[in-house]
Structures are given as structure tokens and as C-alpha cells.
């Protein structure tokens, strides 16, 4: 079989399974993006000062070569203070940050427990660094402890143990029991790494995330944060200790061998950190919308999961999710179908993302359209 034929066969199979994907511009009211605080749609825009206009628009090289700029030292120092961490290290994207961190600190033969619902970037990293993996059932602390207990009884001194989780799971909208995870880690001598991509900006008094809101900063090895969701910025970063920062600079291939972010973006980060830290109103509006929409959905009879601003409406079959999403799009809502492998088999769903700038009227109208669809569920 020729290569092109192989590709065509794969694409035809995806189409027959209703799992074919395409890229298109979203139309209608945005209930799809991760723009939780509404910054991406222009709320509280950032304006550059004239003196910032001279900043380069390219990194020109890796940060270990000519790509470093003093503005990134300022950004990293500001981020570390925001989180109450010793240090922060900028990365080009959330995927890169997760993969770079995990493949640097985890070595072959180490033992890693990861929640089964962790992001693809985490599993890609674990594939690369080849540890002994233990995948525990989603948020199941008994299952996690079983693995920790067994591993700790046979562990050698040269091998380390890690627990990797997300603070908010992107497809389920539920929170990890971080305090319980930290307690288990400390009991069995494991290190905790938390992907905070979906909680950064929205949780805690100043929006620095769920780990900080629970006062667990000193109990975790590292946290990973992205700018491209609630912060409305380009890039990502890792928070941890001074020695972790030093180790990553010397060993992380994802930092050493990639072009640095443009210094011009650093000026946006400096303004963006202050903006989100002080956006008490945005966080309040977001969680008002969470309470209203989830209440409306429960009244409509939908069985929805989680308790955050990500609201999964699980319908099961891929084809039903696709048709239901198409129905809502025709009604003026940008809601997308999420299908395997992004979610487990037979759990295709609509992933509704709530934002601070959604009006109560929008939420009520969308819930009403979903209720109407629910009454015709078997038709979908």
C-alpha cells in the first residue's frame, strides 16, 4: 500500500466513525474556547506603552544563546511572587512545558502514577521518558494508594516516585483532590507535579490557581501553567524551586533547543499578570455564571459532571454528539462535540466552556435550547 493510500484509508475510517476533524472559524456565541475570564474577546484590553514598541518581535535564538532578554527575568520574578514560589521558568506552550518538565525530571526506571484523565501532553511525556507507569482510576485515591503502597515496599534507593495530575480536568470539569494526593505522596515518599492549565487565573484570592488556593505550594515539586487559557496570553511557564529552575535550564531539551518567545510578548505578560491578579470582579462573574448554568442544566434533566466552568454534557455515541453540536451551532451557539480519543470510548460529549463575560440571558437561552434537545434526545 502506498503512503497516500494509507492516509486516505485512515481518514475514510475516521469519517465513517464520526471522528473526522476539520479546522474552521467559530461562529456564534463562544462556549468552546478556554477564555474563562473573557480577555480574548477584548475585555480589559492591554495597551502597550510607546517605550515598549522597540521590543523585538522574535526571540532570534534559544534563551541560552541570543534569545534571552531582561524582560523575561522580570516576568519570571513577577510570576514567582504571584504564586509564592521560589522560581518560574517561561516556556513556549503548555504542551511543551508539560513535556519538557516531565522528560527532564523523570528518568527511565522511575515510577510514575498518573490520573487516567490527564492531558495528552502528560502521556506523551511519559512515553518519551519511559518510566514504570501506574495509571490510576480518575480521582480514585484508593486505587492510587494501592499503587503507592506496592511500589514503596519494593522501591530501590536510586529510583524516585512521582504522582502527576491536573488540578481541573479539561474534559470533565472536575477538580482533583489535591490535598488527599499530597497526603498520600508525603506518606509514601513521592513527588507531586500538577498541571494547573485550567485553574490558573480563576482560583485563589489573586487567581494564581488551585494549588495556591489550597496552600499546597510547599508540598508540590512543580506546577505547570499556561497563558493561552484564562490569562489571554501566549506562552506557558513552570513554577518550582530555585534548583528545579537551574536543573531545567541545564537539562531541559525543550528549553535549550527552541527559539525563545519574542520579548514583545514579555510586555504583555507583565501587564497581564497584574490584570488577572486584580480581577476579582471577573472571577466573581465567572463563578456566578457557573452556579446559574449548572443549576439550569440540572433543572433540565441533563446529567452533568464536575463543578467548575467546564461543563461536559455526555451523550455517549459519537454520532449523537456531532448532531447535537450541529443543532446548537445552527441556533447560534459555538459548542463543539468532543469524541474519542480525547475522551474515553462511548463518552462522546459536548464540552461547554463558561466565561465571565457570558450574560445570564445567554446562559438561560443556551440551557433552554439544550432542554429542548433533551426532549428529542433519541432523535439525536
What does this structure look like?
This protein has 380 residues and is α/β, with parallel strands linked by helices. The protein has 2 domains: 17-37 and 280-379, Alpha-Beta Complex (Aspartate Aminotransferase, domain 1); 57-277, 3-Layer(aba) Sandwich (Aspartate Aminotransferase, domain 2), CATH 3.40.640. It has 13 helices and 12 strands. The chain has helices at 3-16, 70-83, 94-105, 120-129, 141-154, 178-188, 210-213, 242-251, 253-256, 263-277, 280-300, 318-330, 360-375; strands spanning 29-30, 87-91, 111-115, 132-136, 161-166, 191-195, 222-226, 236-240, 310-316, 333-334, 336-338, 348-353. Strands 2-8-7-6-5-3-4 form a 7-stranded mixed sheet, sandwiched between helices. A 3-stranded antiparallel sheet has the order 9-12-11, with helices on one face. A two-stranded parallel sheet has the order 1-10. Strand 3 (111-115), helix 4 (120-129) and strand 4 form a beta-alpha-beta unit. The radius of gyration is 22 Å and the shape is globular. The relative contact order is 0.16.
β-sheet strand percentage: 5-15%
Main sheet?
7 strands, mixed
Name given to the CATH homologous superfamily of the largest domain:
Type I PLP-dependent aspartate aminotransferase-like (Major domain)
Distance between the termini: 37 Å
How many domains is the backbone divided into?
2
The helix-and-strand class reads: alpha/beta
Question: Which fold name fills CATH's third level, the topology of the largest domain?
Answer: Aspartate Aminotransferase, domain 2
Helix-strand sequence: HEHEHEHEHEHEHEEHHHHEHEEEH
Radius of gyration from CA coordinates: 22 Å
Anisotropy-based shape = globular
Give the strand order, joined by hyphens, for the main sheet.
Answer: 2-8-7-6-5-3-4
Helix content: 40-55%
Say how many strands there are: 12
Low-confidence stretches: none
CATH architecture classification name of the largest domain: 3-Layer(aba) Sandwich
Discrete helix count: 13
State the name of the first-level CATH class of the largest domain: Alpha Beta
Overall pLDDT, averaged?
93
